[in-house]
Design goal:
alpha+beta, single chain, six-stranded mixed β-sheet
Length: 290
């Protein structure tokens, strides 16, 4: 157990990944999670923590409560969002600027499904399944009973189970498929593109109304292949690189040094089953340019 008086910078830095990790999982955006993390830091630095015996739990609880309030108010904005909503990607791996608490719950696929949960379900799932919080503490965050928190977490767990049950390709296989898809799209090779896509593959693009993007999910290998070729012809990107976001490979595509879109995929048996393209510049800005 940990007994502290005032929060030192060293203590804060050791717990910051957990604070940010809780906020990011609940909110799904880097910018909002950073705002919550900063608020937690300011409040904790000004607080008397002499009675706190588990600093990590105290900080994560504060992050969860703050994120819960943000998420409830953000629901109205997200319901009026133009087109599909995708999570804001989090740079991980060796190029990441800061350490982040990582596990399966931070993948893009998982965050997409978690977006369908209610704010209370999302908080209960993150606190119990990721941070191993007892339902009594979760009840303090949500303002309900431990039994209600247990029911929320159980319901949320059932809804995200589909992601955990999907077959998952290795990192090397995912990178190979991403590179092959990029090469085929650049060459306008429809046959190669269709061969890389599952016949019932689903394509989702997030432009947020800022740039042109499909307003609804697109299904079918041939339709997705044609769309990919047309986007290359229209945007004429001139560079790309493989990066790691949310613990998995992603393909970043550039024009004139500016990041114009980011592709993440789910791959099974060598073919893409889910293709997600983020083109909203507001969600790409924090990843930087080349």
């Amino acid at each position: 157990m940990e007994l502290v008086g005032a929060l030192t910078e060293a203590n804060w830095e050791s717990h910051r990944p957990a604070v940010f990790g809780a906020a990011y999982r609940i909110l799904g955006t880097v910018a909002e999670a950073e705002d919550v993390t900063q608020e937690v830091w300011l409040r904790a630095a000004a607080a008397d923590l002499s009675a706190v015996r588990d600093l990590r739990a105290w900080l994560v609880t504060l992050a969860a409560r703050t994120s819960y309030n943000v998420l409830k108010s953000a629901r109205v904005r997200r319901e009026s969002y133009v087109g599909p909503w995708l999570p804001e990607p989090l740079l991980t791996g060796p190029d990441a600027a800061a350490q982040v608490l990582m596990d399966e719950s931070v993948t893009i696929a998982m965050l997409v499904v978690m977006e369908r949960l209610t704010p209370a379900e999302r908080v209960a799932l993150v606190l119990h399944d990721v941070f191993d919080f007892p339902f009594g503490r979760i009840a303090e965050v949500l303002g309900g009973t431990p039994a209600a928190g247990r029911k929320l977490a159980s319901r949320a767990r059932a809804r995200v189970a589909e992601v955990k049950e999907r077959p998952r390709a290795s990192r090397a296989e995912t990178e190979r498929v991403l590179k092959a898809f990029k090469a085929a799209a650049d060459a306008g090779d429809m046959a190669a593109l269709v061969g890389l896509l599952h016949p019932e593959a689903v394509y989702v693009a997030d432009g947020g109304g800022k740039v042109t993007a499909a307003r609804r999910p697109v299904q079918g290998a041939e339709t997705i292949a044609l769309l990919a070729v047309r986007q290359i012809e229209i945007r004429r990107p001139d560079a790309f690189q493989l990066i790691e976001v949310n613990g998995h490979p992603a393909l970043a595509t550039y024009r004139g040094g500016e990041l114009v879109w980011l592709d993440t995929v789910e791959v099974a048996d060598g073919r893409i089953t889910a293709f997600r393209r983020l083109v909203n510049p507001e969600k790409l800005a924090h990843l930087g340019h080349i």
